[in-house]
């Protein structure tokens, strides 16, 4: 009789603490790691990991699967990338609490802010809840192949309490603030991991209205934070523009001072305010020196907009000539764009762009447009841009873009690094990643379905930064794994996972690291109501184990549904000893 459920043999074990790898076997029984080293007992399943690496399962702290989690057990594309725990409810948007008459508005807010097709959400969500606790029950009752954690979103709470005054951006009264605090604490008591909010003009609903939390005042934010402090539960997560950087940060810092709860803040370099991120990081560092637990959530590459005939945008969407074929079947669009007369008319046209809108950048900043290719390069050199190629060939950049778009019979994608690429490399991102007060995040898994596919961030972290980078230094693989596992788990209070140690939860990846390959995103139409989304697959994730069972092989589901809803902070299992973390 086998002594263990699974034994992983002979891999290079990166234990998640940041320690150097050691060759070891890993034995798993009853959903827990039970032995690491030379395992003499056999396993009901034996996994040969020779020549491969073994890591804890990856913890993605920033996803938007709030609707998808109720109908999709597998949460692709994140699970193509070694993710075994996904945290949603970020950026202040989500679907609970919700009164019946607010459902359509919440769908429109999520569609506008996170580019998730409203028709898919309307078809897929069953709305068998009103309160956040009922929403958690609905998620818990859904089949899951990985673990998920939920945060209560400010936008839904504000609208639930204030009604139409919330999207009108009116200030909350003291009584409304107290009620919001009560609802947040009620959710935390039911098992929500934390509270999230948004203070950015980038977040708009499907009709162009601002997110209802944009102008929430200090009294409201501090009142909610104070309630969380009294409950002694939950984390804080937010995004803000920081245009008045120090004053905005001071207000947010006040939330941590009043609550004592940890906070994480989105950090990205924005071309419109290219140095603000540095000032925010300086403020975060100063807060930590004062003993306040604040981290920046940072991405491992540029926030990349994908342009093309199959995505939601391309450089010609503001051209009247292109609009005559927009929405036609792909084959018809390709045929028209290859017609010399149609092509000449299109390229000669000068469209009018809405002043100050991001779409003008996406259509005309040719120095930041690149061909993506089948194996994407997320740190392209400026001399590979459409502008540079046009200068070398004597073409207009739009002609270069059109040629690129027509490759692969119109399925090719263009890459526009919208955030974090002001200097033409990932030098700024390197500073963000290696800052002592940051954490890896912002994959937005489940969101931006037709224009961005950053759920592959975990694979970029370990391949680009740990193996392949040529335009700057690489980072130690053990440190990168630590950030994706123990450090991210601790960020949201999940101290029962993220480390390969006896007694810890058996969420484990076996990865053929030398051959790990990331492919270009592609469009599929598999959301409810035939909604489209981008997915991005890999080769090399040999096995992803969730709670002691192989849930995914090479990213594809095995049918094992060992995932669960994580309710609240999780303590380290009793008696487990873990070496000090690398940072």
Blueprint of the fold:
Elements: E1 4-13, E2 22-29, E3 32-37, E4 43-48, E5 53-56, E6 58-60, E7 83-88, H1 103-114, H2 118-124, H3 132-141, E8 147-153, H4 154-162, H5 174-190, E9 194-199, H6 218-231, E10 235-240, H7 245-259, E11 263-266, H8 276-289, E12 294-298, E13 303-307, H9 320-323, H10 330-338, H11 340-348, H12 358-364, E14 370-371, H13 386-393, H14 397-405, E15 414-419, H15 427-434, E16 438-440, H16 457-468, H17 477-491, E17 508-511, E18 517-518, E19 522-524, E20 533-535, E21 538-539, E22 541-546, E23 549-553, E24 556-557
Parallel strand pairs: 1-4, 1-5, 6-7, 7-8, 8-9, 9-10, 10-11, 11-12, 12-16
Antiparallel strand pairs: 1-2, 2-3, 5-17, 13-15, 14-15, 17-22, 18-21, 19-20, 22-23, 23-24
What does the model show?
The chain has 583 residues and is an alpha/beta fold. Among the domains are: 67-77 and 86-301 and 422-442, TIM Barrel, CATH 3.20.20.140; 305-419, no CATH class. The chain has 17 helices and 24 strands. Strands 1, 2, 3, 4, 5, 17, 22, 23 and 24 form a 9-stranded mixed beta sheet that branches. Strands 6-7-8-9-10-11-12-16 form an 8-stranded parallel beta sheet. Strands 13-15-14 form a 3-stranded antiparallel beta sheet. α16 (457-468) packs antiparallel against α17. The model has no long low-confidence stretch (mean pLDDT 96).
């Amino acid at each position: 009789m086998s002594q263990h459920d699974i034994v992983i043999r002979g891999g290079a074990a990166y234990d998640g603490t940041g320690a150097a790898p050691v060759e070891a076997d890993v034995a798993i029984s009853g959903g827990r790691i039970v032995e690491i080293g030379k395992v003499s007992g056999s396993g009901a399943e034996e996994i040969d990991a020779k020549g491969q690496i073994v890591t804890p399962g990856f913890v993605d702290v920033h996803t938007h699967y709030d609707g998808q989690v109720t109908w999709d057990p597998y949460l692709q594309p994140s699970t193509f990338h070694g993710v075994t725990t996904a945290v949603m409810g970020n950026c202040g948007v989500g679907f609970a609490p919700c009164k019946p008459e607010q459902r359509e508005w919440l769908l429109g807010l999520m569609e506008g802010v996170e580019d998730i097709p409203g028709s898919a959400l309307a078809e897929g969500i069953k709305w068998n809840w009103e309160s956040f606790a009922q929403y958690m029950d609905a998620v818990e009752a859904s089949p899951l192949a990985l673990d998920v954690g939920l945060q209560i979103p400010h936008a839904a709470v504000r609208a639930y309490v204030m009604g139409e005054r919330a999207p009108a951006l009116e200030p909350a009264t003291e009584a409304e603030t107290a009620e919001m605090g009560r609802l947040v604490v009620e959710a935390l008591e039911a098992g929500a991991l934390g509270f999230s909010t948004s203070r950015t003009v980038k977040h708009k609903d499907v009709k162009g209205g601002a997110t209802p939390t944009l102008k929430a005042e200090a009294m409201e934010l501090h009142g909610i934070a104070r309630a969380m402090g009294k409950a002694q539960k939950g984390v804080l997560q937010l995004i803000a523009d920081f245009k008045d950087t120090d004053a905005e940060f001071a207000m947010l810092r006040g939330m941590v001072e009043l609550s004592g709860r940890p906070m994480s803040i989105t950090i990205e370099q924005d071309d419109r305010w290219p140095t603000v991120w540095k000032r925010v990081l300086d403020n975060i560092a100063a807060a930590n020196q004062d003993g306040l637990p604040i981290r920046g959530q940072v991405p491992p590459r540029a926030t990349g907009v994908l342009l093309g005939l199959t995505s939601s945008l391309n450089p010609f969407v503001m051209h009247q000539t292109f609009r005559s074929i927009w929405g036609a079947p792909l084959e018809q669009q390709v045929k028209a764009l290859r017609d010399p007369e149609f092509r000449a008319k299109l390229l000669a046209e000068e469209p009018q762009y809405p002043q100050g809108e991001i779409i003008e950048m996406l259509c005309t900043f040719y120095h930041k447009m690149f061909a993506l290719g089948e194996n994407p390069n997320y740190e392209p050199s400026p001399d590979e841009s459409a502008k540079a190629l046009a200068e070398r060939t004597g073409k207009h950049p739009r002609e270069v873009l059109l040629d690129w778009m027509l490759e692969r019979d119109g399925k090719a994608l263009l890459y526009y690094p919208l955030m974090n690429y002001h200097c033409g490399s990932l030098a700024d991102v390197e500073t963000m990643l290696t800052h002592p007060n940051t954490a890896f995040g912002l994959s937005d898994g489940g969101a931006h379905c037709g224009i961005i596919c950053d759920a592959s961030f975990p694979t970029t972290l370990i391949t680009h930064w740990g193996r392949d980078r040529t335009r700057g230094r690489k980072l130690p693989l053990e440190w990168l794994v630590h950030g994706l596992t123990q450090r991210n788990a601790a960020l949201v209070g999940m101290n029962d996972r993220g480390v390969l140690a006896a007694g810890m939860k058996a969420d484990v990846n076996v990865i053929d690291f030398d051959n790990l390959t990331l492919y270009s995103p592609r469009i599929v139409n598999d959301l409810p109501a035939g909604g489209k989304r981008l997915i991005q697959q890999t080769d090399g994730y040999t096995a992803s184990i969730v709670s002691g069972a192989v849930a995914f092989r090479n990213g594809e589901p095995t049918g094992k549904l060992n995932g669960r809803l994580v309710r609240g902070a999780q303590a380290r299992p009793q008696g487990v000893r873990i070496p000090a973390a690398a940072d």
